[in-house]
User: Which sequence fits this backbone?
């Protein structure tokens, strides 16, 4: 069975006046149909850019992106249009991701009409109603403008818009980060329900490990444009091998207060270095608690420790 | 800084070139040509040959690309050629009229600045009082009053109340300053009012911006003069946008005075432009348009330099 | 599935209600702007009903009453052909409104679309459009308008074209700078990710969101277009006789007979000033109301 999405050696550099921003610097992963890959890392590490490259909102500097067996990076505009239906996105900010001049109904109906998914305006109105109820909204919401709704409601509209295209892959770019904690769980549950109902595949982006714990089958941890560690959920949470993953995990609160008290906290020193001027060798070495001399000049590759568990650390076995 | 100046200078070239090309082709699209117009007065009918000979004399028989190349090579040598209508060298045609228009433009600028800066500053210091409202109404009215109508009113008032009209013939300033002023002060006033309106509004908003700065608010200055003295330094930077509108308006006056010139019977650049277009005098029209556009582009360049000089960050953008 | 927060709603406001609130707030907070709007409306009514409310036929000459001073019969006097000045001013508002609204609307709209397109594509397309706009911007408005008149000839439609052309690059400049921010909005990305065509994204998703600067430009252009039309007509290069137009009424005889028949020179000019004044008053207040950030500019 071939993967639904296969990203190989994706590189995206931005030219800015002060130099080259290495936003994504050699990222590879694949997604099987129906699974959820959590992509986690601190803000600025290149998660959004990775997602945008897959969606072809940015042209990759190099690397390959295979979606349903087709290479996306070489498609022209009209070929892309057809592929795009199958690949949708949910954004972080529910306030700016909906066109303020369109009603919810128009927002959801537009892709149905443009792509000829549902013909006839009455049929489209019915489908809009149906989609709204699937995401937990009321038919009456179709007449609303986005600014007349709460953040959680808007995020549901964003989900309905993505669903309207009947996609196979949805890239969720921190879909709950901007929401109240009480609403976050609702949205995540909704995404899970929809996944099983429609057989969706998710690339789920988040900036901490707590959020993706529920929903992910596998987790990839990113640091400064590279993947530091990638494994199935259980392995990442129970047996992390990369010091960065460990540090991130130690920041995740544990429900059990006794365990919470006892465990050690790894606090990373310093700031995330600028992708304009990444450190030599292992990009993590200036902040790494266990770095040795080798880490300062030799770039660690992502290598399999056990099948399906990769880490980009020279000391993955000893640590 | 030198690098920035050179970069900006180089950027001017394509724009000027674009203007030159645009006006060249625009003129050829205009229906009718100079030869037809020249002989259109003669009732007896002119033979085809006469027209052809005249066309050949003006180089209009050549293919378009040939005319274009001739024109561009002339420009490259800073040679504007001769007027097709009068046969005189173009720089001779333009010289006096340029002096006249330039003088009116400078006088209007002086009037505008003298009105705008005090009024704008006053309105800002007295924001939302009757002073502010009066100044704003005065300036909105300035934007609404056509300067040619204001000119007509001036003439009317001078005629009815003083039984006097400004001199009709242009006397250069260096020949007789008094005569010269008597003639040109009226158009300058008519244009200056509108112009001052633009500048007053800009001054007011720039001043308000400065007043909003924290250190001035915390200083809690009550008196007008106190406020003014406190803002003096900040004002220098805030005046940049004011300088910009004044400079750009000035540049536009080089060609934009045409209606006022008509009212006061002044033989300035604007009327020359109207005439030259009416005559389909290609060479003269092209030269005038280039002159007007170049003034604008150069003024723009100087404004940018002023900005870069005051705010070094701009250079790196 | 828990949907508790779904129904804890922001109250729904109908479009009509929101519109009404805006108008009421506008009138209350900006009385000057409201007065301007009232005069604009009055102008429009006069333009629409000119044939009903005018005392005379605007084209009817009366050689028995040439250059007649204001009187009971002719409130604002007559011109050199004995035509009633008041009637011609009332009809002139038709020309002014027609030219003003068409130019402002076409100019601002085309300019906005060009500006938004430029911002949307960015890169080389943006650079090219910017350069072309620069070229047009380096002509004074009136010079460019005169060039277009020379090309097309005089007459109402040509005057409208002549005034519209120089407005386009000015509108494009303003629209582009607003659209640059819109371009980065996730909803534009969403539209791109949905596989919509460029034209749809530019027209449906970006353009409506530069509405505030668009309206501000539109109102600013209204006054400018009326002034420009008056100027062109005054030069004899705009609307041509015997069409009643304010600028045209100031041409020729009005100056020639300024001393003996000053009403010919005064009243049409007043009409221009008043109309443009009202448009500017309204435009300024509208700008303040729509965009608080622009308040002082
Ligand atoms: N269009 C762009 N131009 C220049 N730099 C960019 C651009 N987009 C993103 N970046 C930079 O790339 C890096 C990664 O950004 P992003 O992918 O948004 O990170 P994340 O989503 O993980 O927070 C950041 O340093 C960001 O500043
Ligand atoms: Mg992000």
Assistant:
């Amino acid at each position: 069975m071939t993967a639904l999405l296969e990203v190989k050696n994706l590189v995206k550099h931005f030219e800015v006046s002060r130099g080259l921003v290495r936003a994504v610097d050699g990222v590879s992963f694949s997604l099987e149909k129906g699974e959820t890959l959590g992509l986690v890392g601190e803000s600025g590490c290149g998660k959004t850019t990775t997602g945008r490259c897959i969606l072809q909102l940015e042209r990759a500097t190099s690397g390959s992106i295979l979606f349903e067996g087709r290479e996306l990076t070489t498609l022209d505009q009209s070929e892309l249009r057809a592929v795009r239906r199958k690949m949708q996105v949910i954004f972080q900010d529910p306030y700016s991701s909906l066109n303020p001049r369109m009603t919810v109904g128009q927002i959801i109906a537009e892709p149905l009409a443009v792509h000829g998914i549902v013909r006839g305006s009455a049929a489209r109105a019915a489908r809009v109603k149906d989609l709204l109820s699937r995401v937990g909204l009321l038919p009456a919401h179709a007449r609303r403008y986005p600014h007349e709704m709460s953040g959680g409601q808007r995020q549901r509209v964003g989900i309905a818009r993505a669903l309207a295209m009947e996609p196979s892959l949805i890239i969720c770019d921190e879909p709950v980060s901007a929401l109240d904690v009480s609403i976050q769980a609702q949205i995540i549950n909704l995404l899970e329900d929809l996944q099983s109902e429609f057989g969706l595949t998710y690339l789920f982006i988040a900036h901490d490990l707590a959020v993706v714990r529920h929903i992910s089958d596998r987790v990839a941890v990113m640091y400064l444009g590279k993947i530091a560690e990638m494994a199935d959920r259980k392995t990442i949470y129970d047996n992390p091998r990369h010091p960065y993953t460990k540090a991130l995990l130690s920041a995740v609160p544990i429900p059990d207060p006794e365990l919470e008290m006892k465990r050690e906290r790894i606090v990373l020193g310093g700031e995330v270095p600028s992708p304009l001027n990444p450190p030599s060798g292992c990009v993590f070495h200036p902040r790494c608690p266990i770095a040795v001399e080798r880490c300062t000049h030799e770039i660690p590759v992502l290598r399999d420790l056990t099948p399906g568990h990769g880490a980009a650390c020279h000391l993955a076995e000893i640590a | 800084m030198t690098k920035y100046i050179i970069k900006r200078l180089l950027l001017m070239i394509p724009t000027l070139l674009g203007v030159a090309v645009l006006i060249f082709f625009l003129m050829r699209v205009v229906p009718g040509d100079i030869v037809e117009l020249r002989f259109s007065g003669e009732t007896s009918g002119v033979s085809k040959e006469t027209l052809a000979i005249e066309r050949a004399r003006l180089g209009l028989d050549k293919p378009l690309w040939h005319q274009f190349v001739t024109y561009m090579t002339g420009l490259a040598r800073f040679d504007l050629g001769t007027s097709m209508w009068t046969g005189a060298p173009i720089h001779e045609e333009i010289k006096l009229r340029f002096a006249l228009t330039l003088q009116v433009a400078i006088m209007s600028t002086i009037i505008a600045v003298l009105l705008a800066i005090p009024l704008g500053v006053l309105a800002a210091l007295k924001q939302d009082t009757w002073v502010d409202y009066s100044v704003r109404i005065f300036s909105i009215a300035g934007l609404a009053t056509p300067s040619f109508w204001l000119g007509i009113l001036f003439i009317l008032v001078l005629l009815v109340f003083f039984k006097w009209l400004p001199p009709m013939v242009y006397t250069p300033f260096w020949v007789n300053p008094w005569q010269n002023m008597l003639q040109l002060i009226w158009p300058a006033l008519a244009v200056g009012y509108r112009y001052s309106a633009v500048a007053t509004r800009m001054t007011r908003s720039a001043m308000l911006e400065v007043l909003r700065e924290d250190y001035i608010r915390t200083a809690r200055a009550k008196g007008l003069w106190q406020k003014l003295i406190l803002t003096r330094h900040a004002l220098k930077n805030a005046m940049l946008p004011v300088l910009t509108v004044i400079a750009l308006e000035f540049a536009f006056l080089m060609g934009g005075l045409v209606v006022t010139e008509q009212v006061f019977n002044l033989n300035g650049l604007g009327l020359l432009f109207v005439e030259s277009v009416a005559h389909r005098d290609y060479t003269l029209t092209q030269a005038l348009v280039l002159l007007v556009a170049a003034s604008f582009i150069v003024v723009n360049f100087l404004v940018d330099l002023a900005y870069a000089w005051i705010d070094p960050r701009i250079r790196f953008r | 599935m828990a949907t508790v927060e779904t129904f804890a709603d922001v109250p729904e406001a109908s479009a009509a209600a929101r519109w009404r609130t805006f108008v009421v707030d506008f009138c209350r907070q900006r009385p000057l702007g409201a007065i301007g709007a009232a005069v604009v409306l009055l102008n429009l009514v006069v333009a629409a009903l000119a044939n009903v409310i005018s005392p005379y036929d605007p084209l009817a000459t009366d050689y028995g009453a040439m250059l007649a001073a204001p009187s009971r019969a002719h409130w604002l006097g007559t011109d050199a052909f004995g035509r009633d000045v008041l009637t011609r001013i009332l009809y002139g508002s038709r020309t002014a409104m027609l030219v003003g609204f068409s130019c402002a609307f076409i100019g601002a709209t085309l300019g906005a679309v060009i500006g938004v397109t430029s911002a949307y594509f960015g890169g080389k397309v943006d650079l090219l459009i910017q350069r072309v706009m620069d070229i047009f911007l380096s002509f004074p408005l009136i010079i460019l308008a005169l060039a277009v008149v020379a090309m097309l000839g005089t007459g109402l439609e040509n005057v409208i074209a002549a005034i519209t052309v120089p407005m386009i690059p000015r509108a494009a400049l303003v629209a582009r700078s607003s659209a640059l921010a819109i371009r980065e909005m996730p909803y534009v990305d969403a539209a791109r990710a949905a596989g919509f065509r460029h034209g749809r994204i530019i027209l449906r998703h970006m353009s409506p969101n530069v509405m505030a600067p668009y309206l501000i430009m539109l109102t600013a252009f209204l006054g400018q277009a009326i002034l420009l039309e008056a100027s062109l007509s005054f030069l004899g290069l705009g609307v041509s006789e015997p069409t009643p137009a304010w600028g045209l009424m100031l041409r020729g005889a009005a100056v020639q007979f300024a001393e003996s028949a000053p009403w010919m020179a005064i009243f049409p000019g007043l009409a221009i000033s008043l109309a443009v004044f009202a448009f500017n008053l309204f435009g300024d207040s509208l700008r303040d109301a729509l965009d608080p950030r622009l308040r002082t500019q």
In short: The mean pLDDT of chain B is 81. The radius of gyration of chain B is 24 Å.
